[in-house]
Design a protein that fits this description.
Jelly Rolls; Arc Repressor Mutant, subunit A; elongated; 6-stranded antiparallel β-sheet; AraC family transcriptional regulator; HTH-like; alpha+beta
Amino acid sequence: MESIWSQSNYRVGEITYQSPCIYGPREQTNLQLVYVHEGNLSVYVDSAEYRLCTNDAILLFPGHTERFHFAEDGPTHHGWCDLINANLNADALENLKQYRSINRLSSQMKAIARFIHTPDSLTSTLCKDPTNRLLAQSLFQAYFDEFEKPTANHPLPTPVIRACSHARNHLGEALTLDDLASAAGVSGSHLVRLFQTHLQSTPFNWLWHLRLERAQQLLVETALSISEIAYRIGFQTPYHFSRRFKAQYGDSPVNYRKKIWGKP
């Protein structure tokens, strides 16, 4: 990977949009890192939408059609760094696609981006200056180094945190792997790998466990019927809910509630 960064050329740029704006469609020809310093934007890659907020970054791949929709409620200041003339074969590109996600800018990445000389213009600047070229190279390296690196405040990688948050906020809906992956900003297969690595579970096993934990809470703290609890936490039928609950807690929801409520 390091040989790719050191043997390639880079082009950088940044722009501030003061009002709502749509840029594109355009065909992506390079491996491009896009990041938001302030504001927010939606990047449409073919038919997929990725929403970036302040201090978010995304890696874009050649061969796709893109559109950029910038914020309507204030200015958006964003920058980009292109990796051009890179010797990326099909296998290398496929390997890099696991990083196709929205990721938070680390403090290191923000510092590097701040020092790259980029005139505020839609025109990208080729990094001919050795210092600028080294900074652009470091920006790409930092992105890949930080992508799945846990931090003290967030022991889980960003895509896992976003998938879990989306699941908690939409627990009663018929969620699919694509729904969770879209919320996380990664592919479904990559989200499965992240869950297995960091939670020792699959997204759906984790989701069922979350639903049953919520059911346990509702059984103890509310007088909702078994059927209503089942539908509220995303089960299709009370029977399916009861079967899952008994498998996890060793008793039916009815008996579990009776035992808990019967205790002083």
